[in-house]
User: Fold these one by one.
Assistant:
Number 1:
Amino acid sequence: MKKINNLVFGALALASSSLLYSCEKTETTSDGIEYRYVTQGDKETKDGEFVVYHFTAKTGSDSLFISSYDQPMPPYLQHIDTATARTGVDEIFLNLNNGDSIVITSTAEKIFTPEGVPPFLKNDETVTIHIGVINVLEEEVFQDYFNDLAAEGQKKQAEEAKVQLAEDIKSIESYISENNLKADKTESGVYYVIEKEGSGAQIEQGDEISVNYTGYVLDGTVFDTSIESKAKEAGTFTEGRPYEPFTFSVGQGMVIPGWDEGLQLLKKGSKAKLLIPSPLAYGPSQRGAVIVANSILIFDVEVTDVVKQ
């Protein structure tokens, strides 16, 4: 069961076995979030039933920044009659019924809470979320339903990733040629250029490493960096953010697959360029204005520390 405070970020055509009616009814939560029913089902969700839904989130300029349709599985929640809403968004999710189609329009800080606003949004920026309930299921049949969905989703995702990888490899090889890079390629499809050999033992799965990095897409637009001067140069500087090497354990799924694989080719002190096809990055998911669906990512990295485990 997903926790209520994670519902907005939980990972089908809208369908319902209950009756729907178009109502355009507008309501307001206890903390002032206004939401509108586009359609409303007439069958109330019972205690213990699972609500399966899809959602999209857009900025005030109508830019899509998150969509559950990009994920292999739709998000879900289990309806508990005694659950307590902590925010207005909780109130909305706790009262979803089969067939509901709801549009929420409010500020980012009201929807995500002031502490949970994504870094690419301002607290007072308008956000619109569209929620569509696609099924409500009794607990006894939910697991079989979701297992079937998972199998179908995984198969489809694997087929799409294979096609996308072939397209991305062509794009990466064109980029390498145009920029006169001498790159090698791993079996999975990560291209890399080792610009400076490091010293010491090779990085291995489980090692804790620290990395300075600058990430950008094929047209050179920077989306993130751990280096303050690079951030100022690229126009992505954020006041108050600590600019320092990023530390994580390799091979534990804490970063995108292309990082887990590519950084194991390096040593402490190594500098390299990693060119990562989208299936080994964020795939069809959008991660803000720069990283759109199926974005090839390039990282200039420097390994500043390696702690063997």
Number 2:
Amino acid sequence: MNLQASLKAPIYTDVSLKLYTTFKIGGCSKYFAEPRTRSELLSALEFREERGVPLLILGRGSNLLFSDAGYPGLVLSTRKLEIGQMTNLGRGRIRVPAGLGLIRLNLYCKDQGLSGAEFLCHIPGTVGGAVVMNAGFRRRGALWHEMKDIIESVTVMSFGGTLRELTHRDIRFDYRKTNLGGEDIITEVTLHLESAERQKIDDEIKANFSYRNSVQDLRYPSAGSVFKNPVGSSLTSGQMLERVRMKGMRVGDAMVSTKHANFILNVGQAKSSDVLELMSIAKKRVLEQFGIELEPEIRYVPSEIDETVN
């Protein structure tokens, strides 16, 4: 329900979080907001400050696993934040809102005749989320690309409402992570791309989708790759998990894909506890056989009553 209609940004209570993640798992958020403007964003942050509750910034929830017990604070979705404000700055530079979906980003780039973001086209996330985790991708036979390759700058708002611009050199990029996403909210991103023929861009988008469909299991809800690939290893996480016979293993309605061992699927009404148990088994088996401790790529969001998750 709407808690306070008088607020610039409506605050809702007891919102089911499974509706806002690709995993379709999780309890309810105590408070939920989906601001459309920076003014509404600021009012939501002021509400959070007044209530003294935790804050979680949510894009499309494509790599999140919420607790079955829900979230005790304010979940703030950026999916509608200034979503129509895409600007071609010229010379291959574009400015886009952080809540823009990556598929829509690619459609806009293709329309503008700009290439460089095609590696993101199949990821069901937002531009802001891709920046925070330095999203990357390579299909077989192609080059590896990451967000750090195309970012020029990002605009962030502090939890206190202060806006500032960060350039590429202000951001620390690493494999599947950056130094962003702490006490700042990304509001918009400037990318530098290259001019290209629309047909060439379209062909690259189709090739990436085709590759994804050939190697990933898209039959059921999931959060994509469960574990990061170990740095320095000749084997990927998926290859290790396949060798320790994780494919097809099931706990409740959470099941390791029979097509890709680094995917856990929600084949019914899976609980976060089911997924966490599968992840624990997988980590233990890989550690015992390969001596490598897998690092989760999925981000687990516990409730206040959850115990520490290993």
